[in-house]
Predict the 3D structure of the following.
Amino acid sequence: MGNFSFFRSRKANLSLITTVIAAVLILPATGYGYNRNDALKIIKSLTPTWEAPKVESWINDFRGNPDGGIYVNEPVVFKAESTDPGYFLFLFVDAKGEVALFKPGAKNPDISSQFDGLTQAQPLGEQFLYTIATAREISSEELGMNANAAYKVVGASTNAVEELADKLTTIAAVNPMAISGKYSYFVDGDTKLSVRGMNVGVKREIAQVRPPVVKQPVEVTVERMPTAEETVSVASNEEAIGASTGMVRTSAVPRSSSQVSSDGISLDIKFKINDSSLTDAGRRELDVLGNTMVGLQSSDTLPVIVLVGHTDSSGEEDYNMQLSDRRANAAKDYLTSTFGLPENSIFAEGMGESLPVKDNSTAAGRAQNRRVVLKVQQ
């Protein structure tokens, strides 16, 4: 279930294929499922028991974060260096929170190590690497690895990562252990916006709808609060359709210019005719967006976003309204299940055929109109 994240070993013709489990918890509206922030928090809680070495991690020849990141299918080499000789493990966390261990298998302690023969694959987004150095070699049995295995898939759940942390804590009690700081790099692919481009775009949209911080006290007069009718009026047409068809909208949002960014970000999420299923290309676009959202969540600046679905002019107007709503909700469901984002941080609404961006008289134009657009709500 879900998408896949993997590194492929070119030398040994091995594959590390790790399934991202959509760990959706039944939580209050403010709750969320597992994502990489949970894994990083657990790893950060590990306490070193070997104070002497200073350990550093990086990939390829990028000693420091790579400028612009790397691309899917490019070779990757994990590298580490320590001020004191030791034995090394690489701890990897991908953009969706999948965790894996890589064991170089050195015979003797050294001040440096690397794990090569890897090819970068999806998911797109920010990836994280830590290096663990120990005074004595850690056996495969202690890590729960097969005797001759070069890696171990830990998993993508809080329980799996906590179990690994418990193992490492037990080892560290009898085998002096140091851990590097968090090293991160970006992985890009065939998407409309790069990972960093999406980060910049969403932050720009946030700036449109969030007023700047006022450093001096100001007097604010509130004339009146919006009425309930004003708040829900945007959903009136769709709700009427839902009442007649048995299809009820799950979310409706206010759309005044002061509450929602004006232009939005046109995601390259396109659909087949009369279809609301996400394509592989659409999922990649959402992976880039999900990566940005999880990053903002980690810094407590997670915005509320609106995913707006659209259709071409084929079919009846009322049906197109429902279809556009399903498209928006398909994108929302993917983000919440794959990235563990809070339900109340993402709204979905359909605009039907009312806002075409291209001429509906041509097949190419209609294809561009079957889309989802991202907007940021205050």
In short: The domain at 4-188 is CATH 2.60.40.10 (Immunoglobulin-like). The chain has two domains: 4-188, 195-209+233-377. Residues 1-6, 8-31, 213-261 have pLDDT under 50 and may be disordered. DSSP finds nine helices and 15 strands in the chain.
